[in-house]
């Protein structure tokens, strides 16, 4: 089929056939389209949208543009989770071993930081020796033996997505719900999943700041994923403040280890992790109800089994065998640790989570350009949650920085990101909707 005819039809608002969409993606994968044609197609979709059937066809075509993994010999349900990104969102690090401890197999293909949000791969690279791009045989072996493996996307998985995204990124078409949906789900389909749970963030630290838009995206993702053959549910979660009490890379690995050792009970982070574990267990048929799933997840955490699996995964992927027991031996600390003090008494009532994420980038903990190197040591820890009563001079957070000047700038950014009021604030629930 002639690419420009497909572009014209979508530009005019026509519904494309499965064959038309497959033809366009095949040509894209083969390098037979110009950047102008790819950009025109993306812009036409941005303006005209896509039906559910079109989005399913686009997702499947992109998923099949490269290798599609299979998992012979693994008799456990194959599951995964995806987050639309946030600040202090290290859920995947704990969720994967908890789910594995409960009898699931979790081949988790994660990404790097994007904009103000942190990336799971960047955090894992804080661990010396950890291999985020293992060969397929090792990846399969780790999933089989440890129960989970968190790695990066290889060039052979959904390569059409990478080519399309590169053009979307420079043509102002990233924020198209059909294109976002196909981009996210094509990689998950290529991973050979049976069930999937989605964490769609909303709030000032999320890409979808508006709750109604977040619900539209979540519904699109669930409808298309189920239409493409993956049993899928989604939770909408709050990102009006950092999810964990740490934001950065190595500091979030510390946070993960504290969580797995039971030191984060009662936190917003625990609520989200347990909720997603329960979703995984119910969707895969391991547990009959979400309540049973939560109980099973908490047991896996309390018994230490989840921590053991995380340790095994790290070691099998090249990290130290005693990393979980002796993290201080391997996680390099920043030379400057500076407390951030509150300037008045009252209740922490609001914060700008996006600004906190940008402050991590300013410290060197994220990228402004794809080729930038990350300083894994820097970030924030001991961040107080909203709703906390503070007195003037109390510690709000700790800055981890490479220099005194960088620490002072970051401390000022954190202090200005929070609002303190004289009465207890009304805060949104951390999990607001299930779709």
TrEMBL record:
Domain of life (superkingdom): Bacteria
Transmembrane segments: none
InterPro entries, per database record: Glycosyl_Trfase_fam3 (IPR000312), Glycosyl_Trfase_fam3_N_dom (IPR017459), Glycosyl_Trfase_fam3_N_dom_sf (IPR036320), Nuc_phospho_transferase (IPR035902), PYNP-like_C_sf (IPR036566), PYNP_C (IPR013102), Pyrmidine_PPas_bac/euk (IPR018090), Pyrmidine_PPase_CS (IPR017872)
GO cellular component, one term: cytosol
A molecular function GO annotation: 1,4-alpha-oligoglucan phosphorylase activity
One Pfam family here: Glycos_transf_3
Documented EC number(s): 2.4.2.4
PROSITE patterns: THYMID_PHOSPHORYLASE
Keywords from the named record: Glycosyltransferase, Transferase
EC top class named in words: transferase
Pathway involvement of the protein, from the record: Pyrimidine metabolism; dTMP biosynthesis via salvage pathway; dTMP from thymine: step 1/2
GO biological process annotation, one example: thymidine metabolic process
Signal peptide: none
Quaternary organization: Homodimer.
HAMAP family, alphabetized: Thymid_phosp (MF_01628)
Family: Belongs to the thymidine/pyrimidine-nucleoside phosphorylase family.
Entry protein name: Thymidine phosphorylase
Species annotation: Rhizobium azibense
